[in-house]
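Recap from last week: sequence in, structure out.
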Amino acid sequence: MVGNADTVVFQAAVNIIFDRQGKVDPVTRGLEILVEYVDLDVDVPFWSQHVSFIMVGVIVVTNMRSFLLQLMKVFRAVSSSVTSSIIVLLMAMVMGMYFVSSVLLMRMSLPLEYRTILTTVLGNLQFSFYHRWFDVIFLVSGLSSIFLL
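Predicted structure tokens:
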């Protein structure tokens, strides 16, 4: 597990240093590699669309579920009769921010045509700014976790 974490932290550092942004979603790229090296007769755009949709759905559902479970643990540990209303409002705000940030980050895993639709729906956001800052925050928290452990 540590090797996998090191790889992700290294990849975040590379993204920050070279200001890299993904042009092709990972599923499409993986299917292209599979078709090229295994010599399969697969319609890559068709299958990448469906596999990406399923993968993004599973990731969003599992992330939201685990986040809600952690949120409930914090709520139970901190709540009392006096502070319960404030904590509920604070947790709702945190949950909303977490959901929006998950959607923004999942945008890079979608095929280009869906990424364009999501960009249109969300308006004039500077997605490269948010993706870069996600990598910076992830790198800082990952490196501090490595040093603390």
